[in-house]
Amino acid sequence: MATYDLTPRIAPNLDRHLVFPLLEFLQERQLYNDNDILKAKIELLNNTNMVDYAMDIHKSLYHTEEVPQDMVERRAEVVARLKSLEEAAAPLVAFLQNPSAVQELRADKQYNLQMLNERYQIGPAQIEALYQYAKFQFECGNYSGAADYLY
Predict the structure, then answer these.
(1) Mean pLDDT split into 10-residue runs, the chain, 151 residues
(2) Separation CA 113–CA 143 (nearest Å)
(3) Taking the chain, what is the end-to-end CA distance rounded to the nearest angstrom?
(4) How far apart are CA 89 and CA 122, in angstroms?
(5) pTM score, two decimals?
(6) What DSSP string describes 90-120?
(7) DSSP assignment string, 4-25
(8) Which residue from 98, 105, 93, 104 is spatially nearest to 131, judged by alpha carbons?
């Protein structure tokens, strides 16, 4: 069955985050050796911010509770960056969590930025911070949270 698998041909053309479900499917179907799939997942995760997931896979692959020091350092960097982005986006996140304030946004969107700036001191910098925070959430594997912020 593995001879008919197109994953190696299409995976290089996909976003890394789209390849994970494919690898999960292959692992579930047991078309390849489980260790080979886990190694492919770790290799794929190396260029993402999904450090906790990579650590879990590493533990599973090597049957240990220890993880390489570079993974621990990378996790600290990712958490620090996430905290700084969260702080920068906090005013807009607080606004979005207030249903009555969100209700004030006009359907025509013409005066929204002006209203946000006048009433809530939210400007382009906070909007950009929210975008960066949502993008980072996506890169960490929090797809639904990223979608909510981008919406």
Answers:
(1) 86 94 94 94 91 95 94 96 95 88 72 83 91 95 92 83
(2) 26
(3) 41
(4) 10
(5) 0.83
(6) HHHHHHHT-HHHHHTS-TT-SSHHHHHHHHH
(7) G--HHHHGGGS-HHHHHHHHHH
(8) 93
10 Å Cβ neighbour count for 45? Answer: 22
| Closest by CA position to 23, among listed 8, 140, 13 | 8
H helix or E strand, kind and range, residue 28 = helix 16-29
Q: What pLDDT does 1 receive?
A: 60
**Cβ pair 36, 61 in contact under 8 A:** no
Sign of the four-CA dihedral 115, 117, 120, 125: positive
Scan for tokens 């009433």, then name that residue: 119
Residue 18 amino acid letter:
L
CA distance 114 to 122: 9
What is the secondary structure of 50-93 as a DSSP string? -HHHHHHHHHHHHT-S---HHHHHHHHHHHHHHHHHHHHHHHHH
* SS3 at position 138: helix
CB 85 within 8 A of CB 137: no
The single residue listed with the structure tokens 């620090």 is: 80
